[in-house]
């Protein structure tokens, strides 16, 4: 099926949240390459995010990471975002960079450390209230490296208690989004390794607790679209952290490693109503650009998501349902593949022009002189998070 005007109206409602940390320097444990022009503070990260939104029209909010993006005057940052045409989105907590968290945070055996971790989250809620953000995203680096190191079950009990305290501190319009990851930085076990564990905690917390699915946080071969289907079915998919992986939690550009996987994931999103405004599903990117340009890296990512979504919208769902009903295995598969192989790029370029946007946002960025200007103006930019 072709991309219709109705499909394009649906795409116009798409909002992809960019992460502030994508704009800073990042790298591997072997080397962080410094990039000229990277932001020196959260205000400049917002400027770069606003540039991505101005060129794509699809990235109206920026996720912050606390304390990487801690500022003295949160109201000024909020105003700054509004002046640049974007808003502050998800607030990500961070209990993985301080020495006290060596053995965990909310699951730590020491009650004093657990208290500090809870207090950090309460401080994040204050930031949310000041910025108008509705989501507190919790990813815990908690886990152990050696069997026997700590009591797996006691750690779950501590987690339950800590999350409940945090959840109780949320305002009625605020949500808690719990991200899972099956490895790293702990290697024997992590305390929230999978969607089942995240969901279990969310169900115990209440209606406003949802699961965050980071596409890079699964074992190779995991059927991620099945998880998407199940969480949407249960009304508990809170957000995506989109990225690509070849091996570990690579944080590469979404849709780069396995475009077909992105298609399958987005097909389940559409099937499950995740595009509807009231679904509460936040489409966030969680990526780092270690060797490529950061702003173009984000533009490419936003374009990859919208392009893949456009292909999903080309899926002939009526024909697919009929083929499925008939038990037509290959026919059904072909209908799905036809949508995947539809080249939507020319129509999307035209659509952008119709909306007063550049037909080719990548080329428009390169021609804009923005990169040259920030390289001149910004000296001494920061690493993404670590050391920020
Ligand atoms: C953990 C993670 C989590 C963090 C981000 C920087 O691997 O995906 O979302 O907040 O990376
Ligand atoms: Mn993530
Ligand atoms: Mn990750």
TrEMBL record:
Keywords: Isomerase, Manganese, Metal-binding. GO terms for molecular function: L-rhamnose isomerase activity; metal ion binding. Residues 72-226 form the Xylose isomerase-like TIM barrel domain. Signal peptide: none annotated. Pfam families: AP_endonuc_2. It comes from the Bacteria. GO terms for biological process: L-lyxose metabolic process; rhamnose catabolic process. The keyword Manganese applies. This is L-rhamnose isomerase. The gene is rhaI.
């Amino acid at each position: 099926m072709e991309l219709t005007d109705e499909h394009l109206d649906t795409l116009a409602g798409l909002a992809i949240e960019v992460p502030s940390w994508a704009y800073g320097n990042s790298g591997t444990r072997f080397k962080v390459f410094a990039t000229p022009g990277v932001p020196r503070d959260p205000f400049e990260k917002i400027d770069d995010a606003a540039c991505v939104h101005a060129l794509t029209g699809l990235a109206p909010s920026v996720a912050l990471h606390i304390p990487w993006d801690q500022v003295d005057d949160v109201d000024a940052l909020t105003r700054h975002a509004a002046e640049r045409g974007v808003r502050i989105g998800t607030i990500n907590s961070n209990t993985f960079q301080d020495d006290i968290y060596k053995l965990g945070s909310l699951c730590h055996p020491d009650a004093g450390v657990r208290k500090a971790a809870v207090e950090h989250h309460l401080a994040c809620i204050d930031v949310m209230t000041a910025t108008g953000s509705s989501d507190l995203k919790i990813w815990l680096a908690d886990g152990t490296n050696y069997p026997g190191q700590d009591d797996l079950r006691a750690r779950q009990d501590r987690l339950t208690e800590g999350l409940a305290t945090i959840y109780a501190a949320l305002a009625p319009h605020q949500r808690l989004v719990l991200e899972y990851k099956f490895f790293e930085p702990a290697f024997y076990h992590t305390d929230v390794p999978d969607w089942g564990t995240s969901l279990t905690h969310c169900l115990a917390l209440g209606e406003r607790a949802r699961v965050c699915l980071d596409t890079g946080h699964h074992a190779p071969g995991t059927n991620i679209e099945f998880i998407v289907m199940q969480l949407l079915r249960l009304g508990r998919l809170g957000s995506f952290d989109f990225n690509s992986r070849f091996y570990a939690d690579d944080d590469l550009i979404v849709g780069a490693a396995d475009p077909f996987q992105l298609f399958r994931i987005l097909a389940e999103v559409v099937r499950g109503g995740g595009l509807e405004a009231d679904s509460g599903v936040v489409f966030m990117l969680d990526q780092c650009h270690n060797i490529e340009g950061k702003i173009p890296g984000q533009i490419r990512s936003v374009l990859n998501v919208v392009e893949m979504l456009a292909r999903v919208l080309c899926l002939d769902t009526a024909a697919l349902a009929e083929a499925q009903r008939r038990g037509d295995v290959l026919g059904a598969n072909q209908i799905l593949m036809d949508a995947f192989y539809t080249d939507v790029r020319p129509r999307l370029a035209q659509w952008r022009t119709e909306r007063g946007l550049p037909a080719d946002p990548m080329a428009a960025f390169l021609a804009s002189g923005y990169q040259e200007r920030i390289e001149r103006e910004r000296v001494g930019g920061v690493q993404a998070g670590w050391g920020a």
